[in-house]
Amino acid sequence: MKKCCICKVMNGCIKHHKRYLPQEIILVCNNCHNKIHSNELLGVDSLTPSRRMASIFYSNKGVIRKKSNGVALRKLTYNEKKIKEAMYAN
After folding, report:
1. How many domains in the chain?
2. Are both 69 and 37 inside the same structural domain?
3. H or E element: which one contains 85?
4. pLDDT tens for each residue of 63-74
5. Are 16 and 27 in contact (CB under 8 A)?
6. Same-domain pairing of 66 and 80
């Protein structure tokens, strides 16, 4: 079993992107993952990539969507498409 990188608990660890380019993934428990995304973990080095990089990474079919309701906001730019290709190259 794998340990959470933050609290060292040994159950239910999931992958969390610390960075997208280059990809840097850590294993965290569900509780710590929720704390990361709600900014409850103070004093911990940056564990959340920029919203822009997350949008590019998770864009579906080259479209940036609004997180709350999935409405398409815009298409990826040429440079963003190249960034996404580099992210999945590894």
Report:
1. 2
2. no
3. helix 78-88
4. 888 877 888 888
5. yes
6. yes
CA 9 to chain centre: 21
Residue with tokens 């992210």: 87
Same domain, 82 and 54: yes
Give the side-chain half-sphere CA count within 13 A for 6: 25
Helix axes 78-88, 51-58, angle to 10 degrees: 70
Q: Answer whether 12's CB lies under 8 Å from 1's CB.
A: no
- Residue 45 is part of which domain span? 1-49
DSSP string computed for 22-64: TEEEEEE-HHHHHHHHTT--TTS---S--HHHHHHHH-BTTEE
Beta bridge partners of 24: 19
Across the chain, mean pLDDT equals 83
Amino acid in the structure at residue 56: I
